[in-house]
Structures are given as structure tokens and as C-alpha cells.
Amino acid sequence: MPIDALRRIRRFNRAVTAEVGALDTSFLGRGRPLGAARVLNAIGHGRGEVGSIRDYLGLDSGLLSRLLRGLEEEGLVVTLPHPADARRRVAALTEAGRQEFAAYEALSNDRAAALLARCPKGDELLRAMDLVATALGRERITVEETDPRSEAALHCLTAYYAELGRRLATGFDVSLSRDPEAADMMRPRGAFLVALSDGLPIGCVGLKGKGLEVAEIKRLWVCPSARGLGLARRLMERAEAAARDLGITTLRLDTNSALPEALHLYRRTGWVEIARFNDDPYPDHFFEKRL
Amino acid sequence: MPIDALRRIRRFNRAVTAEVGALDTSFLGRGRPLGAARVLNAIGHGRGEVGSIRDYLGLDSGLLSRLLRGLEEEGLVVTLPHPADARRRVAALTEAGRQEFAAYEALSNDRAAALLARCPKGDELLRAMDLVATALGRERITVEETDPRSEAALHCLTAYYAELGRRLATGFDVSLSRDPEAADMMRPRGAFLVALSDGLPIGCVGLKGKGLEVAEIKRLWVCPSARGLGLARRLMERAEAAARDLGITTLRLDTNSALPEALHLYRRTGWVEIARFNDDPYPDHFFEKRL
DNA sequence: CGGATTTCCTGACTTAAGTCAGAAATATGC
DNA sequence: GCATATTTCTGACTTAAGTCAGGAAATCCG
């Protein structure tokens, strides 16, 4: 371990502590202690159930109760019993609460925008931040099944097509490729999985089925800042699990030799190369795996 | 301003807050509140004067006084009047204090090492962290005059020679170049300046004089993660100021066309190209500036 | 149904952090 | 020398945050 690396990480910690501290201070400007503001923001971000707020913010049950009473007295929040289990309670923002939440969001966005504006190399900075955030938030990466037309899915697919366009010598035009109908990548025929890191989509994979025992893997992509963390493998495992769940026994996929990481992954994880099985113009390698 | 950029910055904030919070929690493990631990560490890092601790940590005068009394009662710190002004006081660690400080340093280093160990792309991560830390800590970059044989100076010079080796088609061997004697880059003949970002050296420039009215600028270098922030210009301005201070009226420098950023900077800041003035094998462009 | 469990709540605490006024010691400028 | 300013300190506060024990309501399970 080079001693220099430790100094660099610690410098990073200092720089970033100052930035985060400044954000906290700006949150104080709305005349409410930080604890209450954090609860309000958790609710605004869709965390309604009291138990889940407690877990997320790591608060004591009694403390959270009191903070919620405070927000109720301010008229920002109402709590109702959970419809399915009346012991639990669900908090929701009132109209005034939504406005207050929006004000916090605006503060947060302003700070982010100011940070970017005062740095001349914004794009490079953003890429570096993505890399750091993904590496630090590695344990918090979740893989979720979504509609392939959802915002998160489209974000990944757009990036995937753009990358293919850059990496294939021929360029890439979606319309020429066999673009699976969305319904083929949703239950009950297939599935579409997105990897999320703190809500930001950073990878995807599609399982395209026709209701038969054979299905295809499509659109495996991992955001550059998240490569090297084993995420592609994790996505593939989840896709295979979904396939088994749907009663599929054989998986196929096509790929291109311009994507050597992908070829390497498939060869290492039980896929065997087979003959061409479609007339799509882009792929030049074809694989199969029996589940 | 792309909306996506804000989401990315905010994700970064969240990821990093969790990391920093974990470090704070680990500091709590030594049975001392965070406030006292921060004061102890500030003193350990060489911040002796009470006033400077107050500024650095942003503490109220009364609060800091109490924290210092607490550390004194623990036997970790002694305070003495400042030799030049007995109103001010200077805090110093006792032997027990030094041990306790070392324990905090170890905790901090352990966390940094653990972070690096659990991330498979350590080197890329470090570079990204450098970039973020430099961008965020931009206002805190200081330029200081040092001995050209100091640790910080050598760090920069080593990186500078390595980069020349990569960028010059011929490679680079210091011994073939006219390596200025250290004394030529120190008062009263010259100066050596280092840019520090939170203590980490990220750039340098040397002013090499012979006691005459003409002197040379040597070894201008900025760390890759800090480029694009105008640091080279700032270093040059400081070097020119030092030259004026030493009564120097004409500056010269040599450089190579493999370093186009440097050529561009010189041309924009009042340097005029002149004929070759030495027989150093590496440079192919020569500049002069009258102060 | 009835005891055990879960979920949230209240009340009574503790601790850390921060604020503010003014006192004491020392330095500075005329 | 003396008024004024600076630096640190003490004491008396406030506020935020967190802990813990126990209670009420709802649910679960035999």
C-alpha cells in the first residue's frame, strides 16, 4: 500500500467534507433543525412508512416520532395508518409540505449547479464523481426489474446504442437491428433488469422471450464508471434467474467482437459458442447456455 | 444545465456523505466526543496557536477554550503563552497526546486503506478522487516558496521528469539537461514555488538565478488532475513576482513543442520567442519576457 | 379467544454543541 | 502613563440530538 495513496484519499475526504458541510448549512437556512429537514426530505423522496424512514436515517424510534409530531404541527406532514396493517403508519406531505420539500430540492440543485459552474472542466469532473460515487456506493447497487420503456431503462438503452455506435466500425442503427418489442422483455414472456446506484441507472440487461423454452439475452450494458465491479456478471445472473423462473431452459445471445469484455464474460460463465441463428447485420458471435 | 448533471452530483454527495459519516463514527470509538477529537487532531497536524485552531475548525472562542481544558485534564495537551505575545496561547501535545493522535491517524489511514482495498480499480479511483478533490478545494490551493530539495518539491519534480519522459519523442534524462543547482533556485539567487491543495503538492515552478539581472524559469509543472484550473498561470505570476522582488529585470525560458499547452500559455502572457540561448538537447523553443 | 409480538408513541432523561456577556491579562498607540 | 484594543477564559445559558423504559393499539398464531 503506497503511503501516498492514503494521503490522497484523506485529502479527498477533507475536500468533500467541506462541500457536504456547506450543503448542510444551507439546509439550515430554512429555520428548521437538520434532523427535521432530513425527515421531510426522506418523505418527499417517497419514503412514506415510518419504519423505512427510521432505517434510512438511522434514527431512534422515539426521536423520529417526535420529529414527525413537529412536522405535523408545522402543517407539513400528515400521518395515517398503513392500509394493510394499522400498527404501522405512513407519512405523507401536505400541500405546504410539498412546497417546503420543493424549496429544499431547489437549494440542493442550486448548490450542485454552482459547483459545476465554478469548475471549468465540468464534464471530466462529473465523470470522476460518477466513478467515485459508484465505487463508494458499491454495496448499495440494486438490480431491479422494470418496464423496458421506463425512464431508467431508456437512459441505459440510449447510452448503450451510443456506445455501440462508437465502438462498431460500421456504426450502429437501432432500426436495422432486431429491436425487441417491449412486451417481449416483460412478464410473462421476458424481463428487463436495471442496476441502480442511489437511484441512478448504471446498467441493464434484457431477457427477450416468445413464450417458448428458448429465449434471448439482449442489451447487456454497464456504464463506464461502473465497469470492473462485476456488475455485468451480476446482471447476467439475475437475468438467468428470471429465465429459470419463467420456465425457460435455453438462452441464446449474439454479440460483436468489437466488445471483447463481453465475449470474455460469456466464455467464463458457461456460455458456448454456436452457429449464427439470425440475420441481424451487427453480431458476429453467437452463444448458447442451457439452464 | 443538463438536469442529469444535478442528479449525478447529488448521488455523489450521498455516496460521499455515507463514507465521511463512517469515518466520524470510527473516531468516536476512542471514547471522546468528535469536537475534542477534532481539536486534538488539529494540534497534531501542527496547528498550535489557539486562534488558528479556532479559524480552522470554525469554533466559538468559549467552546474551544473548554475543549482545550478538557484535553488538558486528560493529560493530552499543554498550553503555553506565545513567546512573542503573551495574550495568545499555543497548544502542544504531551507524550500521551502524541500517542492518542497517532491512534487517530491510524484509524484514518485504516479507513482509507480499506476503501482502496475493497475497490478493484484502485488506481483509476484515486485519479478520480484527485480530480474531485482539486476541483472542490480550488479556493484552498496555496502557492508556497520552498527548498527545491523538500519532499513536496521532489514529489513534483519526479512527476515532471516522468511526464517529460513520456511526452518527448526522445525520452528524457535529467542528467543530460542542465539541472540547476538547488542553490540557484533559492533566495537570494532564485526561488522555488510549490502549489499545495490541502497539503498535497500539485504543481511547481523554479526561478533559477545567478545573481544577475537575467534569470530563467525552469520546471513548470501542474499535476494532470489539476489542469484547466489556471494554476500554471498562477504559478508563473508568483514566479515573476518573486523575480521582481529579487531585482531581476529579464526572464528567459526554454521549452519543447511536445508541450503545446505551455507554448500557448507563454504566448498569451507576454513572452516573446527568441533565438536559442543554450545548448541543452531537449528544448526547441526559447522565450524571453521583460519585467 | 387470548397470550405473544410488532409498531409506534410518550415521558424522563443525558450528552454534545453552540451562544453570549463579561472578566482578566496583555499589547498598542498617543 | 493611560485609554483602547486584542486574546483567551469562565459562567450561565439554549438548542439539537440521542437514549431508554414502558405503554397503547393492532396483529399473529395456536
TrEMBL record, chains A, B:
MF terms in GO: acyltransferase activity, transferring groups other than amino-acyl groups; DNA-binding transcription factor activity
Keywords from the UniProt entry: Acyltransferase, Transferase
PROSITE patterns found in the cross-reference section: GNAT
Residue ranges that the Swiss-Prot or TrEMBL entry lists as coiled coil: none
Domain N-acetyltransferase: 144-291
Keyword Acyltransferase attributed: yes
UniProt xrefs under Pfam families: Acetyltransf_1, MarR_2
Signal peptide range: none
Family annotation (CDD domains): NAT_SF (cd04301)
InterPro entries from the UniProt entry: Acyl_CoA_acyltransferase (IPR016181), Bact_Acetyltransf (IPR050832), GNAT_dom (IPR000182), HTH_MarR-typ (IPR000835), WH-like_DNA-bd_sf (IPR036388), WH_DNA-bd_sf (IPR036390)
Acyltransferase found in the keyword field: yes
Protein name as catalogued: PadR family transcriptional regulator
